[in-house]
Amino acid sequence: MRVAVTLMAVIALPVAAGQMYVCTASDGKKTFQQRPCQGEVQQSTRSYKIRQTSADSQPKPVSLEGNEIYQQMKADNRRAEIKRELKRLYRDLDKAQANMDRELRVLRAKKSRANNNLAGAQWESSISAEMQAITTRYQVEMQRYQADITRLNAEMARL
Questions:
Q1: N or C: at which end does the chain have fewer Cβ atoms within 10 angstroms?
Q2: Secondary element (H or E) of residue 50
Q3: Average pLDDT of 82-108?
Q4: Structural domain tally of the chain?
Q5: Is residue 61 included in any domain, yes or no?
Q6: Residue 75, in any domain of the structure
Q7: Is 103 domain-assigned?
Q8: C-alpha neighbours within 13 Å on the C-beta side of residue 18
């Protein structure tokens, strides 16, 4: 009898159900909204249900931290953020390498024009020191990019 009363009470509770639209832009950024997606975006839908605890009670705030769908969406968003950040870091790393190569190429060309005398030897020595400074500067910058890439790849593996 007690089970039947409990079952009737649960069945009588109002249930809110709905659907949300997940719009994914070409850059991977996702937005969640109640209306269909507009423009050049990929659209998918997710359904949800919320059951209130009793018919006469006010709706209580829902903690999303324990919600499986919320956690999945949060992880999906973080993965997309990491992919965008990795893409930017790889682009910046390539750009730093290209800038270093360009600057060194210019200095090598200058070095090849040094005269074969004492003044030319001093000029060639100063160019070599400048080349070493440029190489060191760009190596530090590229190591920073590599460290960020390693950190983000490790975070992506944990998700």
A1: N
A2: strand 42-51
A3: 96
A4: 2
A5: no
A6: no
A7: yes
A8: 9
The per-residue pLDDT for 155 is 95
pLDDT surpassing 70 at residue 30: yes
* Spatial separation of the C-alpha atoms in residues 155 and 150, rounded to whole Å: 9
Question: 146 with 90, same domain?
Answer: yes
- The span from the CA of 82 to the CA of 102, in Å, is 30
Strand partners, 30: 24
Q: What is the DSSP letter of 38?
A: -
- d(CA 117, CA 10) in angstroms, rounded, equals 97
Banded model confidence at residue 54, pLDDT cuts 50, 70, 90: low
Percent of the chain residues past pLDDT 70, beyond the cut: 79
Q: Give the predicted TM-score (pTM) of the model.
A: 0.56
Q: 43 and 110 share a domain?
A: no
State which residues form the domain around 103.
81-158
Burial of 26-60, coded b for 16+ CB within 10 Å and e otherwise, reads eeeebeeeeeebeeeeeeeeeeeeeeeeeeeeeee
Same domain, 89 and 151: yes
Domain boundary, last residue among 15, 37, 54 = 54
Evaluate whether residue 10 is within a structural domain: yes
The predicted-structure confidence for 129-147, as pLDDT tens digits, reads as follows 999 999 999 999 999 999 9
